[in-house]
Write a structure and sequence with these properties.
The chain is mainly α. It has a domain of 48 residues. Helix content is 52%, strand content 0%. The model has no long low-confidence stretch (mean pLDDT 92).
Length: 69
């Protein structure tokens, strides 16, 4: 019996667009502002934005919207 796994494949632009749209919808800020606040330790809704932060970490620290793992 083979284990089945679900896999989602997204491009960098798709990830960035999702972070952007959800940051705007949830917090009224851009993706860049969300990442800036997380990097600076001034974003206080991290528990509610764990999915967006996780996506930003997939981009890596070198990306303008990325975060270090």
């Amino acid at each position: 019996m083979t284990a089945q796994t679900d896999e989602i494949v997204m491009t960098r632009d798709e990830i960035a667009a999702l972070i952007e749209s959800e940051a705007q919808r949830r917090y009224g800020i851009s993706a860049a502002e969300l990442v800036r606040q997380v990097r600076g330790g001034t974003f206080y809704e991290c528990g509610n934005a764990a999915d967006l932060i996780g996506l930003a970490r997939l981009l890596g620290a070198a990306d303008e919207l990325g975060l270090a793992v």
